[in-house]
Amino acid sequence: MTSFRPAPAWLADAVFYQIYPQSFADSNGDGIGDFQGITERLDHLAWLGVNTVWLNPCFVSPFRDAGYDVADYLTVAPRYGSADDLAALVDEAGRRGIRILLDLVAGHTSDAHPWFRASADDPDDHRYIWAPEGRPEGFVPSPGTRPGSYLPNFFDSQPALNFGYARQNPAEPWRQPVDAEGPRANRAALREIMDHWLGFGISGFRVDMAASLVKDDPDKTETAAIWTELRHWLDRAHPEAVLLSEWGDPEVSVPAGFHTDFFLHFGGPTNGLPLRSLWSNGEGTVNAAWDPLDCFFDPSGRGSARPFVEAYDKATTALAGSGFVSLPTANHDFSRLNCGPRTAEQLPAAFAFQLTWPTLPAIYYGDEIGMRYVDSLPDKEGSVLGPRYNRAGSRTPMQWDEGPNAGFSTAPEDRLYLPLDPHPDRPTVAAQRADEASLLHLVRRLIALRRTTPEFGPRGAVEVLHTGYPFVYVRGGRFLVVVNPRSSEASYGYSATGRALEVSGVESAGGTITARGFGYGIFELGG
């Protein structure tokens, strides 16, 4: 394994909170969230106890893919405010002990980026991947005077930056090696972009499609080498900064140089099975290519925690303490926890697990109050990827209170970025702040427990006793966790006494732990 500088000490204590900026808080009444809106709501995050915020892309863009089509990496999009507004957000967050991470789209730009517009008229420009003649499979016709076609990275409007090909092919002369002029220029540009924003005061980046750089790279060896080079630079130039990857395969991405990778709904040899085996109940964002499965957090009780546990064990063995795995509740690309048949009463057990397992937790905005995935929304900025894959349902406005537009914006309802959850009983921050028995208060207590108890952190030991129902494990040899996500009662033979820290529907008597449906319990053993 390549030797890197150890991860900054603060990362082990991170509780991530992802903000989709256009949907979080609108300060100027135009219907779209902005930096000032986030700044005005920082007290909520500080009260909740999260300490690291990741913002989806906030750079100049035509927004054909919600900002993942960047037209200027060094300028913020006017709809979010100014660079001064972002600076104020970073400063005010820092005053509350909260770090800000930005989203780095490394593998492609918008077709509106000046780099691409220049490249489309200059056959000698190699920042992008161009086939000089014809239109090979997957390529898009040139929009400029340059003949031929270009390779997109996702949508056609997102031309792939040229980081080279791992394998050459005489029949495809556009395949440049990774050390060609264009790939070298793009690697240098990534350093310049990161250096700019890290100098601005942010604490690192979440990297979009991090595995997509070098093409025809089946083992990701050459892509990993790019990130290794960048990590060594980061260790020297910005040793307190971190890189989080959208890769979904920690066994590859962390040894390559990332400090953290997420278990995602895709990635790795099982195409995202570890995460999907926990949360994916066949509703919301569904890829037709996914194999049907019964997830563990489902009332039916047909799932198992074993696929997740085995993947976690395998990943952490490969990492050997060199970095971390992060476990999200959801994100802007896949369903919220509260999706389809899953109801609010099922969410406390999910958080009891997520916030006590030795991964870095990532809470998607609104999940702390149980916001719903909203079905049947229109396509918005590229949200629809398939007949059952509409990402807009996870991107609806944050629900702050019972006022107009749920406190998100003063704009007319028809000008909101996306419609609100139409349910009359939609959860809000204000209502749950006032109710100490709410999900929001539970999440806050669990975060506090995690942050004040080293055994619950990512370096604390975990001993799994049972991967069925209930899921039972011990953290740091001192704390017993019992989680029953199914609707019917479940039991496990285990004899121990302990002090209850957070319990709902779990009892221990006569050498048996009994957990009612959707019950959970966290106990300090021997207390």
Can you give keywords for this protein?
single chain; 527 residues; alpha/beta; 6-stranded antiparallel sheet; 23% helix; globular
Description:
The strands form 5 sheets. Strands 1-2-5-9-10-11-12-13 form an 8-stranded parallel beta barrel, surrounded by 4 helices. The mean pLDDT is 97. The protein has 12 helices and 21 strands. A hairpin with a 3-residue loop joins β17 (471-475) and β18 (479-483). By secondary structure, the protein is α/β, with parallel strands linked by helices.
Per DSSP, the total helix count is 12
- Please tell me what the overall shape is: globular
The value of Rg in angstroms is 23 Å
Strand content: 15-25%
Total strands: the figure is 21
Mean pLDDT: 97
Calculate the terminal CA-CA distance, rounded to whole Å: 42 Å
Strand order in the sheet with the most strands:
1-2-5-9-10-11-12-13
Which runs of at least 5 residues are low in confidence (pLDDT < 50)?
none
Query: Major β-sheet, in short?
Result: 8 strands, parallel, barrel
Q: In terms of structural class, how would the helical and strand content be classed?
A: alpha/beta
> What fraction, in percent, of the residue positions are helical?
10-25%
Topology:
Elements: E1 16-19, H1 35-40, H2 42-48, E2 52-55, E3 59-60, E4 72-76, H3 83-95, E5 99-105, H4 114-119, E6 130-131, E7 140-141, E8 149-150, H5 181-199, E9 204-208, H6 221-237, E10 242-245, H7 250-256, E11 260-262, H8 273-279, H9 306-319, E12 324-328, H10 347-354, E13 360-364, E14 384-386, E15 389-390, H11 429-433, H12 439-452, E16 462-466, E17 471-475, E18 479-483, E19 490-493, E20 498-509, E21 512-525
Parallel strand pairs: 1-2, 1-13, 2-5, 5-9, 9-10, 10-11, 11-12, 12-13
Antiparallel strand pairs: 3-4, 6-8, 7-8, 14-15, 16-17, 17-18, 18-21, 19-21, 20-21
Helix pairs in contact: 5-6, 6-7, 7-9, 8-9, 10-12
